Amino acid sequence: MNDSYMHGCVYTLPFGGVGESGTGAYHGRSSFDCFTHRRTVVATPGWMDKLLRVRYAPYLQSELKQYLWMNSQKPDFDRNGKKIRGLGYWIWMIFGLGGPTVKGALLRWVIVLAAGYAYQTQFHRLQMFLK
Protein backbone atom coordinates (compact mmCIF):
# COMPACT_ATOMS: atom_id res chain seq x y z
CA MET A 1 0.00 0.00 0.00
CA ASN A 2 1.40 3.40 -1.04
CA ASP A 3 4.74 2.01 -2.23
CA SER A 4 6.48 5.04 -3.75
CA TYR A 5 8.33 2.98 -6.36
CA MET A 6 5.16 1.36 -7.67
CA HIS A 7 3.33 4.65 -7.53
CA GLY A 8 5.97 6.31 -9.68
CA CYS A 9 5.99 3.46 -12.20
CA VAL A 10 2.37 3.88 -13.25
CA TYR A 11 2.69 6.62 -15.84
CA THR A 12 -0.88 7.90 -15.68
CA LEU A 13 -0.94 8.46 -11.90
CA PRO A 14 0.09 11.86 -10.53
CA PHE A 15 3.39 11.62 -8.70
CA GLY A 16 5.15 14.11 -6.45
CA GLY A 17 4.44 16.22 -3.43
CA VAL A 18 2.77 19.58 -3.25
CA GLY A 19 4.31 22.80 -1.92
CA GLU A 20 7.21 22.31 0.51
CA SER A 21 7.01 18.51 0.31
CA GLY A 22 7.83 18.20 -3.37
CA THR A 23 7.75 19.62 -6.85
CA GLY A 24 4.10 19.12 -7.74
CA ALA A 25 2.13 16.39 -9.43
CA TYR A 26 3.64 15.03 -12.66
CA HIS A 27 2.84 12.20 -15.08
CA GLY A 28 0.14 11.90 -17.67
CA ARG A 29 -2.71 14.38 -17.44
CA SER A 30 -1.26 15.88 -14.24
CA SER A 31 1.84 17.10 -16.12
CA PHE A 32 -0.35 18.75 -18.72
CA ASP A 33 -2.54 20.38 -16.06
CA CYS A 34 0.50 21.55 -14.07
CA PHE A 35 1.90 23.55 -17.01
CA THR A 36 -1.42 24.71 -18.41
CA HIS A 37 -2.92 28.09 -17.67
CA ARG A 38 -6.65 27.69 -18.12
CA ARG A 39 -8.48 30.56 -19.75
CA THR A 40 -12.10 31.19 -20.43
CA VAL A 41 -13.00 31.54 -24.10
CA VAL A 42 -16.38 32.92 -25.09
CA ALA A 43 -17.61 32.88 -28.67
CA THR A 44 -20.01 35.83 -28.93
CA PRO A 45 -22.60 35.53 -31.70
CA GLY A 46 -22.63 38.30 -34.30
CA TRP A 47 -26.13 39.50 -33.40
CA MET A 48 -24.88 40.43 -29.91
CA ASP A 49 -22.66 43.19 -31.35
CA LYS A 50 -25.70 45.36 -31.98
CA LEU A 51 -26.76 44.99 -28.36
CA LEU A 52 -23.23 45.62 -27.11
CA ARG A 53 -22.45 48.49 -29.50
CA VAL A 54 -22.00 50.70 -26.44
CA ARG A 55 -18.53 49.16 -26.01
CA TYR A 56 -17.15 50.98 -29.03
CA ALA A 57 -16.55 54.74 -29.28
CA PRO A 58 -17.59 57.21 -30.70
CA TYR A 59 -20.92 57.19 -28.91
CA LEU A 60 -24.21 58.42 -30.24
CA GLN A 61 -26.50 60.14 -27.73
CA SER A 62 -28.76 57.06 -27.55
CA GLU A 63 -25.76 54.80 -26.97
CA LEU A 64 -24.49 57.09 -24.23
CA LYS A 65 -27.87 56.84 -22.50
CA GLN A 66 -27.68 53.04 -22.79
CA TYR A 67 -24.16 53.10 -21.35
CA LEU A 68 -25.26 55.23 -18.40
CA TRP A 69 -28.25 52.95 -17.83
CA MET A 70 -26.04 49.84 -17.91
CA ASN A 71 -23.71 51.34 -15.31
CA SER A 72 -26.32 52.90 -13.04
CA GLN A 73 -26.68 49.77 -10.90
CA LYS A 74 -24.02 49.53 -8.23
CA PRO A 75 -22.86 46.08 -7.14
CA ASP A 76 -24.17 44.80 -3.82
CA PHE A 77 -20.73 43.58 -2.70
CA ASP A 78 -17.45 45.17 -1.63
CA ARG A 79 -13.93 44.61 -2.97
CA ASN A 80 -13.59 41.40 -0.94
CA GLY A 81 -16.84 39.95 -2.27
CA LYS A 82 -18.75 40.44 0.97
CA LYS A 83 -22.35 41.52 0.54
CA ILE A 84 -23.00 45.14 1.53
CA ARG A 85 -25.84 45.29 4.00
CA GLY A 86 -26.81 48.92 4.31
CA LEU A 87 -29.98 50.55 5.63
CA GLY A 88 -32.02 49.57 2.56
CA TYR A 89 -31.08 45.92 3.03
CA TRP A 90 -32.24 45.89 6.65
CA ILE A 91 -35.46 47.77 5.88
CA TRP A 92 -36.27 45.23 3.16
CA MET A 93 -35.29 42.34 5.45
CA ILE A 94 -37.66 43.54 8.19
CA PHE A 95 -40.63 44.76 6.16
CA GLY A 96 -40.19 42.24 3.34
CA LEU A 97 -39.88 39.40 5.88
CA GLY A 98 -36.71 38.21 4.16
CA GLY A 99 -38.46 37.55 0.84
CA PRO A 100 -36.13 37.78 -2.17
CA THR A 101 -38.75 39.51 -4.34
CA VAL A 102 -41.82 41.67 -3.86
CA LYS A 103 -43.98 38.68 -4.74
CA GLY A 104 -42.26 36.56 -2.11
CA ALA A 105 -42.60 39.31 0.50
CA LEU A 106 -46.31 39.72 -0.24
CA LEU A 107 -46.84 35.98 0.05
CA ARG A 108 -45.09 35.97 3.41
CA TRP A 109 -47.21 38.90 4.62
CA VAL A 110 -50.39 37.06 3.56
CA ILE A 111 -49.26 33.99 5.50
CA VAL A 112 -48.41 36.07 8.59
CA LEU A 113 -51.74 37.90 8.47
CA ALA A 114 -53.67 34.65 7.96
CA ALA A 115 -51.84 33.05 10.88
CA GLY A 116 -52.53 36.13 13.02
CA TYR A 117 -56.21 36.06 12.10
CA ALA A 118 -56.45 32.34 12.87
CA TYR A 119 -54.68 32.83 16.19
CA GLN A 120 -56.92 35.77 17.11
CA THR A 121 -60.05 33.80 16.20
CA GLN A 122 -58.94 30.79 18.24
CA PHE A 123 -58.01 33.04 21.18
CA HIS A 124 -61.44 34.70 21.04
CA ARG A 125 -63.17 31.28 20.94
CA LEU A 126 -61.10 30.14 23.91
CA GLN A 127 -62.14 33.21 25.91
CA MET A 128 -65.79 32.59 25.06
CA PHE A 129 -65.43 28.94 26.15
CA LEU A 130 -63.84 29.89 29.48
CA LYS A 131 -66.66 32.33 30.39
From TrEMBL:
GO molecular function terms attached to this record: aldehyde dehydrogenase (NAD+) activity
The keyword Transmembrane helix belongs to this UniProt entry's keyword annotation: yes
Keywords assigned: Membrane, Oxidoreductase, Transmembrane, Transmembrane helix
Alphabetical list of InterPro entries matching this protein: Ald_DH/histidinol_DH, Ald_DH_N, Aldehyde_DH_NAD(P)
GO cellular component: cytoplasm
Gene3D superfamilies on file: Aldehyde Dehydrogenase, Chain A, domain 1
Any one Gene Ontology BP term: aldehyde metabolic process
TM helices/strands, residue ranges: 89-119
Keyword Oxidoreductase listed: yes
Protein name: Aldehyde dehydrogenase domain-containing protein
Biological classification of the source: Eukaryota, Fungi, Dikarya, Ascomycota, Pezizomycotina
